Amino acid sequence: MVATMRIPQTDLIPKSEKLKILALDVTNADSITKAVEAAGPIDALVNNAGVGMLNVLEGAEMPKIRELFETNVFGAMAMTKAVLPQMRIRRSGVIVNVSSSVTIKPLPALSVYSASKAALNAFTESLALEAALFGVRAKLVLPGSAPTTGFGKNAVARMGMDIPEPYSAFVHDYLTTLRSGTEFTTPDDVAEAVWRAVTELDAPMKTPAGGDAQTWFREAGHSLA
């Protein structure tokens, strides 16, 4: 098993002889090539590298928007292109792209982030039809809100959160309401959903991860089979 990080921090992952940790920046072609070569044969690829952005469109700078898409969409495409040929030749394998439940339930102050994940969804669903010709599967995992993971804090640190004044009161009230919710997604929820997508041959195209994501999934008329 291989785990990748932009800057490997081995102290964050339990030591195991069965786990190899590699450096990987999905926005860098050389980094992708080196990581795929070092990993060896790949049976399952999980594209979970992601950047968040918590802001309304008017407050989002175009360079930051492009940076977000570079990781969330083009990074997943680049990794898939790097791995798909070996899966196609072996006529087996699975690609799991970690999207977001905001593609089920639209939320304010997430328009750019939602757009990147919606693009990832469309890419994966079309990819699944192409890959199926060679016995390769492509699936989506859709996590819900995860306030305890630091994802939101990291997003603000990297992308900023300069909310334009006309929107500021609305966004503040919205975030307060969101944080007061009772259903959230944990890392274990996501891990279980990814494991299901990888190991179950009849896993659905989209698997929601977390109680909130599952609730939104049902409300949208989807089955949790």
Give me a quick take on this structure.
The protein is α/β, with parallel strands linked by helices and 225 residues long.
Structure report:
The chain is of the alpha/beta class and 225 residues long. The protein has one domain (41-219): NAD(P)-binding Rossmann-like Domain (Rossmann fold, 3-Layer(aba) Sandwich), CATH 3.40.50. The chain has helices at 29-39, 62-90, 111-131, 151-159, 165-179, 187-199, 211-219; strands at 2-5, 20-23, 44-47, 94-98, 137-143, 206-209. The strands form two sheets. It has a four-stranded parallel beta sheet with strand order 3-4-5-6, with helices on both faces. Helix 2 runs parallel beside helix 3. The protein is globular, with a radius of gyration of 18 Å. The model has no long low-confidence stretch (mean pLDDT 90).
Strand tally is 6
Q: How much of the residues is beta strand, in percent?
A: 5-15%
Mean pLDDT across every amino acid position:
90
Assign the structural class, choosing from mainly alpha, mainly beta, alpha/beta, alpha+beta, or little secondary structure: alpha/beta
Element order: H for helix, E for strand: EEHEHEHEHHHEH
The CATH class, by name, is Alpha Beta
- Output the CATH topology: Rossmann fold
Q: How do the strands line up in the largest sheet?
A: 3-4-5-6
Low-confidence residue ranges: none
CATH hierarchy: architecture: 3-Layer(aba) Sandwich
CATH superfamily: NAD(P)-binding Rossmann-like Domain
Number of domains: 1
How does the overall form come out from the CA principal axes?
globular
